[in-house]
Amino acid sequence: MSTAPRASDTSTCADHEHGRRQPPVREPEAVERAVRLFRALGDEARLRTLDLLVPGEACVSEIAASTGERVSTVSHRLRLLRAEGLVTRRRDGRHIYYALADRHVLELVENALVHATEEHHKGGADHDDDDDDDA
Fold first, then answer.
1. What is the pTM of this model?
2. What distance in Å separates the CA atoms of residue 16 and residue 14, rounded to the nearest whole number?
3. Domain ranges of the chain
4. Residues 31-52: pLDDT tens digits?
5. In the prediction, which pLDDT does 120 show?
6. Which of 10, 34, 39, 50 is deepest in the core (most CB within 10 A)?
7. Interacting residues of 73 by C-beta distance below 8 A, sequence separation 6+
8. How many CB atoms lie within 10 A of CB 59?
């Protein structure tokens, strides 16, 4: 029995075909933070909460009214999002207002939701089998 790799198991691209591409050098800590960020974004309730903040800041009770959830549930979720650096808060009297932390968070939320609504995602599967090697 041969142990040589099959042609389909090896890369078919050579450096000269696409030019040399240098992968970015990332600090391991930055990658770990990005993983935590995507985990936070990967929860439906958290993503919906962030989406409610796209137009601007809102207090906890406004978000709870929009989602039909208890204030304590929304408050807990916002604490988690704040711990990951995705939202900021400010106090005004008895109210605490939350907002997206910065433009990057706004763009992440908007891009993720726009990307999810694009035509190629509606079937739920990638129908272009030619790109399997690019994962």
1. 0.73
2. 5
3. 53-118
4. 999 999 999 999 999 999 999 9
5. 72
6. 50
7. 64
8. 18
Q: Are 86 and 42 in contact (CB under 8 A)?
A: no
Topology classification of domain 53-118: Arc Repressor Mutant, subunit A (1.10.10)
Strand ranges (E), the chain = 58-59, 87-92, 95-100
Cα–Cα distance measured from residue 67 to residue 46, given in angstroms and rounded to the nearest whole number: 11
Q: Are residues 88 and 82 in contact, defined by beta-carbon separation less than 8 angstroms?
A: yes
Place of tokens 């706004």: 106
Do residues 67 and 78 make contact, with C-beta atoms less than 8 angstroms apart?
no
Q: Is 22 helix (H, G, I), strand (E, B) or coil?
A: coil
Find the angle CA(91)-CA(103)-CA(124) to the nearest 5 degrees: 115
